[in-house]
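Subject: Sanity check before I submit

Could someone independently write out the structure tokens for this chain? I want to compare against mine line by line before I put it in a report. The sequence has 482 residues.
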Amino acid sequence: MNESPRHIHLSGICGTAMASLAGLLQLQGHRITGSDKAAYPPMSDLLRGLGIPVLEPYAEANLDPRPDLVVIGNALSRGNPEVERVLDERIPFTSMAALLHDEFLKGRESLVVAGTHGKTTTTSMLAWIYQVAARENLALEPSFLIGGVAENFGSSFQLKPTRTFILEGDEYDTAFFDKGPKFLHYFPDALILTHVEFDHADIYSDLEAVKTAFKRLVNLVPRRGLIVAYDGSPNVGDCVERALGRVERYGFGEHAGWRIQRLRLEGGKTRWQLWRQDALWADLEMSLAGEHNALNATAAAALAFGQGVSREAIQEALATFRNVKRRLEVRAEIGGITVIEDFAHHPTAIRETLRALRAVYPQSRLWAVVEPRSNTLRRRVLAGDLVESLRMADRVALAAVYQMERIPENERLHPEEVVHALNADGTEAALFEDADAIVTGIAPRLEPGDVVAILSNGGFGGIYEKLPARLRELRNGTGSNA
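---
Independent answer below. Compare away.
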């Protein structure tokens, strides 16, 4: 940590990790400014609450007065006006991941949660477990950085003078000047590896390239360290097979060291038995639904217990864990229609979300409203998987590909083909130009008992607010049904 406060500007501040880093740096006493091309919740709300100004859009003038350091987000590239001014004037610059390591991880115990899916929720669960354990032992109170707002904390970050720092490890590249994964900067003392699948088709050529990145992360865990790895994926097995530290597997398989049994949904709670090496370790429960969330909770429990947290604290924390913003978040309930938001970046994530909603709302007609926005969903490489995932819904409303002009034609997802495939096998689907067209098209068709899952990894044209607003108009008779 530097001795005197600095003016630090974050270009791309509305990214989940960047906004969290801004908060951490502010807690250190630095003066923080930031810029982005567009700001939307929940990170825009977080930054506003912190009093950190966000300048829109990117411009050279955003760097006036000249900052002491510029943190360049990984979405920025050459040609960006702020990047060009930084280079022209040789303003000191760095990446989010490198600054996080240098300012906050040195001298601390780094607990990293990585994987294609589930890392935000699992990181939030792990942080809450440590927070609950700190009621008995203040030394366990964690610092953390999460790629989303954890509802138990009302924040995506926390900074404490204690040793433990829990953070989400992202496999996406670090910056235009550092094309390695961000998580290679975090040097984990202990690691959770949830899933490994092909993702981020814009930077990884194939599954083997993704696996290579995770193998390099595993290779950073010291011999004294602990790796908690999902046992239901051969890809995860490949990534940890040469680990030199202790590896403990979790999942449903009979050979898993941490084995989930008797998973069930009862009275709005998810309950299961967790067995450790053929002996019942604990009966666990939480309010989140879905097999995937039971796996996330089990991973967090296994790592925390391996680091010395008590079983009782783990049980209490999971039972009182709330959720993460944008993860199966109920946004509105209007006239018997439930509108739910979920962060969706990959066909597997969509499948698990719809599966969880089927379990919670077994009698409801389930709508999937999807924006192909992530760099993976915008490409056709996983189009077949997307169709299979969306078949779990009763009705599908698919938006046009976000900024499709940025994807080469031969790589681009053709949503009309997805819609055709769904309709051909009996799943009613329609393609819409944008969020406004979806709201106009589906709102009059929604009925009491319907559940609408809005699935995107971005702002989706404000549909999270627009659809409930339209439903209220229709219910109150202030809007036309035409």
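---
OP: Matches mine. For the report I'm noting this point. The two ends are 61 Å apart (CA to CA).
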